[in-house]
Amino acid sequence: MSDVDSREFTISTQEGVDLCLQFIEPLIHSTVLVADVLDDEQEAVSQRGVVIAALLYLFAKVSKDSEIKSRLVAKVLLCGVEIHVILATLRFREELIECRRALLPSYESDSEAESELDLDDDEGLSEHTGEFESEDTQWITEQVAKAWGLTKYRYFLQTSGQEYSFTAWSYRGIGNFVHAMITDEQHGVNVMPAAVSPFSWLFHIAAYAHYMIHSKDQQERLCGLEVLRVICDVCPNDKLTLDAERGRDENNDTSLSFRQQAASFRKRDWMSPLIQVITNAMVAFPEVNDRSSTLAVLKELVSKIAVTDRFWILRDLIIKCPYGNVAAVLVDFVRNDAVQSWSSSETNSQSPFKTTEICLLLQDTLTKSAERDLVLHADLVASCLSLVRFLYIRDKDNTTGIQTKTTNHGIRDVLTRISKRLQLKIEESTSGRSNADSQSVENDFTHLMILEASLSSTLELCN
To answer: What are the boundaries of the signal sequence (predicted)?
Structure first.
């Protein structure tokens, strides 16, 4: 008998979640019934919020079992907490952390882990407590919660303190909940109230998609991409306006008041970091199918941005992108928009596709490419050349400055430098072909020869 008692019994995570659900399900029903008849609204909210916290904790542990996920989704929806409140959690925490950092000088160095998206679990967000549980931090929390209309739920949205350790809503759990909910045939995007703008849903859900795609786990990355694909499907094209103006000041001004700081944070560019994470995932995926599906999601997401804002966002990403093939994709987006702009009967003098801005983008991109490995950046150079030729042919009045002597001279000089380097690279590749029987060497040579033909035709046009 003692041998039996001393044995260790283990159960799988899925079995453990199922066991917890058997215990929680009756509690959910009783909590909902009690909360519905309570006169104290805050107490009712608190009871529902605690149950949501438990369910989200279970969601954070579930990985593959679709039946358990479906059960969990149904239970979360049964609790009576509005979906947008749950989805606002991560954006709320982002703003809360940034406002604390900006307004409390000593907060930055002690709380960096709070905003990291690659933490192993939610526990990292609660490491820094104690001295920051002061009147100042509580006041900031209350003000941010009030601005978001989440005052009743701030106990569950905290980033630190006893309440975080006990009942904070898990951002990982919410991410899994969102994925399970909107990809489920029974629920899908139809469970999200139509009264809320699709772009509002995109803004909130993108926060979870961002951290999922940022994950080192390939399956979680794919889930994040699927979440984005589904929510993008309900958003109209070319309508998402962002604060993406040329030359905007991105430096944080610590002298701003709380209201100014919060307003500044809400106008931040949240789209560029998301696109960067997607492109990083696209490069990292080993399978061609995964890279192709990631590119499809990227195209869908970019298509939602208003055309002018899209140009400014893509411009910055193109200049900073270290991957030639990825930057080439982004340049192709710009070229497609340029074609649409020049083909449209509507005249817009402020369109960046009809100003010197597009020429400056081409010159900067080609200048950087001229100093890099031409094999790795052949696609990028080719995409830029295609846009240069298009502008030369279509811009008869030289509104972009493409034919102005100074601009023309700058681009022509860069193309001449690229041409000289390209000839040397082709000679090296020719030698390499004779000394090696490698498919990659053959592919590189083919790429370079195609680029040479494209470059020659462009230089002829410039002369």
So the answer is: none
